[in-house]
Amino acid sequence: MTKRKIIIDTDTAGDDAAAIMLAVKTEDVEILGITIVNGNVPLNSAAANALMTLELCGAKIPVYNGSARPLVREPLSAVSVYGSDGMGEKDLIHPAGRPEDKHAVDFIIEMAKKYPGELEIVELGPATNIALAIMRDREAMRGIKGIFSMGTGGFSLGNATPVAEFNVYTDAEAYSIMLKSGIPLTIAGFDLCVGAAAFDEEEMARIEADSPLGAFLISSTSKLLEFNINRNGVKVIDLPDAIAMGIALWKDIILESVPCYCHCCTVEEETYGQVVVYETDKYYEGISVVNKTNAHVVKRIETEVFKQRFMQLLK
Asked: Domain range holding 81?
């Protein structure tokens, strides 16, 4: 069996860890490496979180540090959501390994050249590393088979601002470069990750009881649970990066994916990081027909099938 070749680009917090677990436990993919970007937490914390997750999975996969800051703006973090370490502040992170010496961007370009037409990237954080690789070697990056991005609000609103989703808001310039690159792009927006897609108390209890990996995941997302209770009044954990990984791994869970032209706003502060999603060939009152496509945006997934597979793999 020929395995799909993927790179996971991540700002590892609890939901990224869940996505890494899914990929590691899926037999038909080969994870060439995990590249780290600043986002949820600073670079070194994100790298340690990825290393710890891999070690708990029993996986020997190289980890590469990438950009410690966005292309233009000052770094942000989501410690208010995931805790100061990104993993619930439960003293879970003590990896024995360390990142490789090679820079993440060099590794991405190297793999793009080595596997033209085969390499896929699952983008779980800000797009800084991807944008830097595109700017450094556009020709090599055009050979990438596809990118799966957890980013944008999809067909809904934002979570970092009223209109911007966190991964894009952290480095909108980078996301704009990725959108304009010509690399086939599938977007899993934040709108897929709420409501029925979130894990409730009963589901969290099952995950925690089923395996050490499940217990690690529930502990690592404990601050996220607190955040959702305090902000939204609901006892759930949402795992957007795991859903993006599920979409990358299992195309059959996609119920509807729409060809779109996506524009990322980078100028006005009020709309910085907003991604305007125009459905291709749809009539809009101010624009007669949008006939360009630079991404496929997933509208609906088989939520229950995703959850069943997710929980089965963690066992």
From this structure: 4-314
